[in-house]
Amino acid sequence: MKSTSWSPGTHYVDEANLAAAFFDGAARGGDAPLFYEKREQIWQCYSWNEVADAVRRLARVLVDAGVSAGDRVMISAENRPEWAVADLAIMAIGGIVVPAYVTNTEDDHFFIMDHSGATAAITSGGLLGARIALAASRKSGLHTLILMDDDVAVPSVGSINVRFWSDTVETAEPLSDLDKRIAAQKSDDVCCFIYTSGTGGRPKGVMLTHRSIQANITAALELLEEGGVSGEQRFLSLLPLSHSYEHTAGMHLPFQSNSEVWFCESTEQIAANLIEVSPTLMTAVPRLYEVLHDRIMRGVRSKGGISEKLFMLTVRLGRKRIAGRHLLPHEMIFDLILERLVRANVRQRLGGELRYFISGGAALSPEIGNFFMALGIKLLQGYGQTEASPLISANRPGKIKIETVGPPVAGIEVKIAEDKEILVRGDALMKGYWRDDASTRATIRNGWLYTGDLGSVDSDGYLTITGRKKDIIVNSGGDNIAPGRVEALLTIEPEIEQAMVDGDQRPWLSAVIVPADDIRHLATSPDTLQTMIADAVERANSRLSQIERVRRFIIADESFNIENGQMTATLKVRRHVVRNIYQERLAALYPKK
Questions:
Q1: Which residue, 192, 195, 395, 568, could crosslink 380 as a Cys pair with Cβ 3.0–4.6 Å?
Q2: Residue 466, pLDDT score
Q3: pLDDT value at position 5?
Q4: Number of helices (H) and strands (E), helices first, in the chain?
Q5: What does the buried/exposed string (b/e) look like for 484-515 if buried means 16 or more CB atoms within 10 Å of the residue's CB?
Q6: What mean pLDDT do residues 15-31 have?
Q7: Alpha-carbon distance 233 to 238, whole Å?
Q8: Going by C-beta distance under 8 Å and a sequence separation of 6 or more, which residues neighbour residue 127?
Q9: Nearest one of 71, 76, 79 to 38, comparing CA atoms
Q10: Res 364: pLDDT
Q11: pLDDT at 480 over 90
């Protein structure tokens, strides 16, 4: 196998090969830990050598099953070592990885199998395994299904060859010519189809190459090096590996920085896992930080008294420093005391070793970002799209402007079109959309990716996202309003869990609001709940311009979540779905013409 090593500071990758990079890492890592997962309440360790050996064995199983270079293989499983082994084995033999979210329905899985032309699928078990099996039984041309778990009752799948991981991968001989197969791959070969989250309809298959993903990894390594973070980090992996953000930054990046990956048990266990794992780095979407903010604030309010007052003083003084305002002499003394009494305690609750939280995948509310920064937690907000593998820009450790998404990362060029759309160019761009030439031509023009996002660039080159082109609300007066900013200020209020703002071609804004659970329990009647939410909306309105203020609202029947189809697997609200559900009630808020 031709050995290629990647180093921070490289702006252009001539011979990107993700499988080769992994095996380079394994040669250096040897018996050192690579993965950890919790089984029967105990963290189990898997070394670099063990993972590399499993990759070679699964590669043998796939080749023997008839998977060839260029074939698509779908993976749908919870984050676990086998997910990464499957990803690497498929790439190593020249196949194309097709990740799919575990929250997909049977029809969603069938669509991805059918659209990608998958010839094999790898999944875990339980209900997910059953959904995958049912979808596979409908898909012609899919010949192999591999199950990671043994205790799975698989529905009838006709002629599909069903294999169990323990019976095949663990007993197979390593593929003898794998090094040759890896060396035969080119940088511009497609190695992965990642399907978009489908906020506006059917997802598209984004074709990513070794070069495009490697360009992101190289840029990310350089960015972290600026913050004094090099190799041998400890990542806590929470986002689904089927998400382009986690696939690149939470898996392939650690491979190339000689780091450990600890697979989080679940969102519900995040607080416990942070303490157990003591991660140094963690990537997540804004929704996680919102949840952590809410949990911290609920705990503070429940304590009350002097504890609550000291905490709120800590946040206030921290925000003042972040805003660049000088602390008065007595405030400086208080701030030093609170550093030990409050901030150190918060850091311990996050594991005690955290260097950076990294936020991406959607816009982070500046209020949430400043909250963590005020508590001494460094949070780097970035921006990306699946079509860019996905990293486009990120805040720099030495200069964090939390209200922005930072300057472009190395190897990425950004410009703002006349209509304020953000355009992106660089090695990280996708090859195109699978089986969708029209959308490819519309999205990539003259080498530039038309992101569909609106933004501006300040004098330091830091990019600010001002809205999503298709989401912009144009009221009846012709004013353009970005709903994301309004929603962020609404949901910072403790009474409001989620919000979706509406008002296109209307005289003013309305909203669908999901109250926080504890507020629902506290309210003694629907009228009381309405009043509590109205007060929260008014507080948010006080920080908004006249045209951005929400005049009237309705209370949602249930939360926006993945199960009811009102959120994507990446925790973005499906606006068109929510709007369709509540369209009559929203329309009734406005005077009839």
A1: 395
A2: 86
A3: 31
A4: 21, 26
A5: bbbbbbbbbbbbbbbbbbbbeebebbbbbbbb
A6: 96
A7: 16
A8: none
A9: 79
A10: 87
A11: no
For residue 297 the two structure tokens come to 């604030």
Residue 11: pLDDT over 50? no
Assign domain 283-352+355-468 one CATH number from 3.30.590.20, 3.90.1170.20, 2.60.120.10, 3.40.50.12780.
3.40.50.12780
Place of tokens 């013409």: 593
Three-class SS string for 112-173?
HHHHHCCCEEEECCHHHHHHHHHHHHHCCCCCEEEECCCCCCCCCCCCCEEEEHHHHCCCCC
In CATH terms, the fold of domain 473-587 is GMP Synthetase; Chain A, domain 3 (3.30.300)
What pLDDT score does 421 carry?
A: 96
What mean pLDDT comes out for the span 85-100? 98
Residue 90 has, within 13 A of its CA and on its CB side, a CA count of 28
Name the pairing type of β-strands 444-445 and 448-457: antiparallel
Tokens standing for residue 284 = 């997540």
* Among 504, 437, 514, CA closest to 477: 504
* pLDDT beyond 70 at 264: yes
pLDDT value for 198: 62
Q: What are the Cα distances from residue 85, in Å, to 35, 476, 505, 541?
A: 11, 54, 51, 50
- What residue spans of 278-381 are helical by DSSP H? 286-303, 305-322, 329-338, 344-349, 366-374
Instruction: Let me know: does 253 contact 239? Beta carbons within 8 Å.
Output: no
pLDDT of residue 166: 92
Q: What is the pLDDT of residue 177?
A: 97
Return the C-alpha torsion angle 213, 219, 220, 226, nearest 10. Answer: 170
Q: Which helix (H) or strand (E) holds 382?
A: strand 379-384
> What is the mean pLDDT of the segment spanning 265-288?
92
List the domain boundaries for the chain: 18-185+230-280, 283-352+355-468, 473-587
Please check whether the two domains, 283-352+355-468 and 473-587, share a CATH topology: no
State the pLDDT at residue 491.
92
Neighbouring-strand partners of residue 282: 357
Cβ proximity of 72 and 117 under 8 Å: yes
Q: In 10 A of CB 181, how many CB atoms?
A: 18
Indicate whether 1 pLDDT > 60: no
* Cβ within 8 Å of residue 76, ≥6 positions away: 99, 100, 101, 102, 104, 109, 121, 122, 123, 124, 128, 132, 242
pLDDT of residue 150: 85
Instruction: Give the pLDDT score at 254.
Output: 97
Q: Tokens 């150190």, residue?
A: 344
